[in-house]
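Hi, can you check this record?
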Amino acid sequence: MEQELDVRVRPAVAGRRWIGAAWRLFSAQVGTWLVLAIILLAISALAGRMQFVSLLMNLIFPVFIGGLMIGAHQQAGGGRVEIAHLLAGFSGRFVDLLLLGLIQLLASLVVVVVAVVGVLLTIGLGVFENPEGLGEISWMTWVLLALVLTVPMGAMIMAFWIAVPLVAVAGCKPWEAVERSFDAAWRNWRALLLYGLLVTLLFLVAMIPLGLGLIVLVPVLVLTGYTACADVFNLQGPAQPMPNIANEPPESTEEEHSDDGYRAD
């Protein structure tokens, strides 16, 4: 690793602050970030037309995002993000980011297998042959199925939440980044929950004008990966100390303790 990393336990309101900090980075260079987002979306759309290329894109997608994280880190430290940052992940951190993409792809397959097995064990194949049988399934079975589907998906989201910036910016190895991301998400579940609720609301609003709002929302959400990571792990910018992303006075010591007494220093 390039710098020591200690998880800081943030209050629930930090989930809103991560979005606010991402918006400030985005609005400071709105043109560049919009171009980067459009290019990345175009690459993803073209890759989705071909099965093999789509699979390959799943592997290298963290490499592209890693480049954007490097750009965000540069901007947060007083520099500027450039279009060339889209390819920055293909240089210094390419192998580690590629391995992270492989781990994420394998984790996705595991989640799918668990989901399929969960469906088979709870409602069975017979329901698909006779849809009328859905009405005979008890509510307890539906709750059990929801848990079977939600738990592995939630664990995967936590594990890869800020794994990319941990590799691209903090210099973690892929598996270490996954572990640190999960630990950070677990300790900061309140902030992450509020963040998830706000993202859902913003997504619904962005979809209203024919989905055009996504052009702005996508880069902002990408940037929240960096702002959350910078806040939770107190990352230092390349040019100067990382500014307080909340742009507010530090929280009290009492707020920065977890339930088990963990000190968020």
In short: The chain has one domain: 14-232. The chain has ten helices and no strands.
